[in-house]
């Protein structure tokens, strides 16, 4: 069966994507906070 992910192996790269996702979510939160404050907050759970 051909890989559904051409050019990458999700089993080998899975840990890298978790770190990427965490860093991306953190950066998005940091960009939003100045626009939301003081009425709202952005939290990462």
Task: Write up what this structure looks like.
It is built from 1 helix and no strands. The protein has one helix at residues 10-36. 60% of the residues lie in helices and 0% in strands. The chain is mainly alpha-helical and 45 residues long. The relative contact order is 0.11.
Specify Rg, calculated over alpha carbons: 16 Å
Shape: rod-shaped
User: Could you estimate the helical fraction of the residues in percent?
Assistant: 55-70%
Termini separation: 37 Å
Tally of individual helices: 1
Number of strands: 0
Question: Low-confidence stretches at least 5 residues in length (pLDDT < 50)?
Answer: none
Mean pLDDT: 83
**What does the largest sheet look like?**
none
Could you give the topology of this structure?
Elements: H1 10-36
In short:
The chain is an all-alpha fold and 45 residues long. 60% of the residues lie in helices and 0% in strands. The longest helix has 27 residues, at 10-36.
Core attributes:
mainly alpha; 1 helix; 60% helix
